[in-house]
Design brief:
This protein is an alpha/beta fold. The chain is 39% helix and 17% strand. Helix 1 packs parallel to helix 2 and helix 3 packs parallel to helix 5. The radius of gyration is 19 Å and the shape is globular. The mean pLDDT is 96. Bound molecules: iron/sulfur cluster.
Length: 298
């Protein structure tokens, strides 16, 4: 029986992965919109190596590990290169069928690891990291206490490219509030263009109790854009995004308008689709609100 500290999170694309909770919580845990790891029992800590190996042993004996592993929680790349290599080597020694190992990472983790560590991590199995870019607008990034600015995010993305590790970037529609809605969308598209990730997931911000931003909203200091403003942000975001060879998704259930596109070839098609919806002003073309009520943010 594997004991998880709940709740834990994983990207939707890791649904078939074994989740190895090598760390608990997020070492940053300061983003104002995030309520993921606010419980006392989720306070950031690293599991001792013998405990991690015990979990791997149990999972192996119970046949829970197939070809994919996601190392949790919020930013497992914060672990030292030595520890990560020990974990990945042990995983693969016990489960030779493992083909991919992935994790969440903060921009600061990538900058700290640097190209040479990341190249080694890649050699030992790490093939992709998921990063919450959220916005490309430095004013917004500062406001939400993301802990990384536009330029640092570009540098981290270049390091990943040099190391040969794929970059899956998440951005949040609505993160600029009503006052910086379009600036946020434009700067985020430009950030994506500079970073050129292999995958982009655009989600719509949902502010939950427990997040400092929730208090700001209650005090009237932050206002979420309405559904058509969010679709407008999607249009501006797509318009400003150039990817050399990447996938752009807004099919997360938090979004009012799901799109799936391969860039660059599908860009004009999806822009036309978004504009048709905007021009119609027809709410029935958007996902109903109740979809958004039943999900976790990531
Ligand atoms: S959004 Fe990510 S980096 Fe920010 S506090 Fe939450 S888990 Fe940590």
């Amino acid at each position: 029986m594997i004991e998880y500290v709940n709740p834990f999170f994983r990207p939707p694309s890791e649904a078939k992965s074994f989740i190895l909770q090598a760390t608990i919580g997020c070492s940053h845990n300061n983003c104002t919109y995030c309520a993921m790891y606010r419980k006392e029992e989720q306070k950031f800590r690293v599991r001792p190596m013998d405990e991690i190996k015990e979990i791997i042993d149990t999972a192996t004996q119970s046949d829970l590990i197939d070809d994919r592993v996601f190392i949790a929680d919020g930013n497992a790349l914060v672990l030292s290169k030595k520890k990560l290599i020990e974990i990945m080597d042990y995983l693969k020694e016990k489960n030779p069928g493992i083909e991919r190992i992935r994790m969440y990472a903060n921009v600061g983790d990538i900058l700290r690891q640097g190209t040479s560590n990341l190249k080694e991590l890649k050699e030992h199995g790490l093939d992709m990291v998921y990063i919450g870019f959220e916005s490309g607008d430095d004013i917004v990034l500062e406001r939400i206490k993301k802990g990384a600015n536009h330029e640092q995010t570009v540098s981290a993305s270049l390091i990943l490219k040099e190391a040969g590790i794929m970059n899956s970037a998440m951005v949040l529609l609505g993160m600029g509030g009503t006052d910086r809605s379009l600036e946020h969308a434009e700067a985020t598209g430009k950030l994506l263009t500079s970073c050129d990730p292999e995958y982009v997931g655009a989600l719509s911000l949902q502010v939950r109790p427990g997040a400092p931003l929730y208090e700001e909203m209650e005090r009237g200091e932050f206002e979420l854009p309405n559904k058509f403003q969010l679709v407008k942000e999607l249009e501006v975001l797509v318009q400003n995004t150039e990817l050399t060879d990447g996938y752009f998704f807004s099919n997360h259930i938090s979004n009012y308008l799901p799109i799936k596109a391969k860039f660059p070839e599908d860009k004009e098609r999806v822009l036309a689709e978004i504009r048709t919806v905007l021009e119609s002003g027809d709410e029935s073309l958007l996902r109903p609100d109740y979809y958004r009520d039943v999900i976790n943010q990531y």
